[in-house]
Specification:
The chain has 138 residues and is an alpha/beta fold. It has one domain: Roll (Chitinase A, domain 3). It is 21% helix and 33% strand. The strands form 2 sheets. It has a 6-stranded mixed β-sheet with strand order 1-7-8-4-5-6. It has a two-stranded parallel ribbon with strand order 2-3. Strand 4 and strand 5 form a beta hairpin. Helix 1 packs antiparallel against helix 2. It comes from Ramlibacter pallidus. InterPro entries: GreA/GreB_C_sf, TF_GreA/GreB_CS, Tscrpt_elong_fac_GreA/B_C, Tscrpt_elong_fac_GreA/B_fam. This is GreA/GreB family elongation factor.
């Protein structure tokens, strides 16, 4: 149950700091935790005002598609564990899907693994990114 993460990710300084603190508080080994630890160690960290609008940051709402199964595009928001509500599309950054999306750009494909199998989603658009105060890049 490991999240597959690419080497190159972009995180804001504030997201990096908050996620580092969050992981320091984790007593249980959740599925996305180890991948998130690795990502924090290898990410390109930038000031919030310098992050491109096409990058998935914390609280970004993204439009995704399954590159294998196709189907209708769907939306997810990457959030902190206490804010997660999967039925409403709010997924924890500590989940395999949330950890796989964070720091990627529009056009890239997030890939993850769970006990239920492999998953993937291509990022079609960042619909909202807090650092840009509104609509992101398509």
């Amino acid at each position: 149950m490991e999240t597959i993460t690419p080497v190159e990710r972009t995180l804001t300084q504030s997201d990096h700091l908050r996620l580092t603190r969050l992981l320091a508080q984790q007593r249980h080994q959740l599925p996305g935790v180890e991948a998130l630890r690795d990502m924090l160690d290898t990410s390109d960290v930038v000031a919030s005002r310098a992050v491109p609008s096409s990058v998935v940051t914390m609280h970004s709402r993204v439009l995704l598609e399954d590159p294998v199964r196709g189907g209708m595009p769907f939306q997810l928001t990457v959030c902190y564990p206490e804010e997660a509500d999967p039925a409403a599309g709010a997924i924890s950054v500590l989940s395999p899907v949330g950890a796989a999306l964070l720091g990627l750009c529009v056009g890239e494909t997030a890939r993850w693994s769970t006990p239920g199998g492999e998953g993937a989603a291509r990022i079609l658009s960042v619909l909202f990114q807090p650092e840009n105060g509104g609509e992101g890049a398509a």
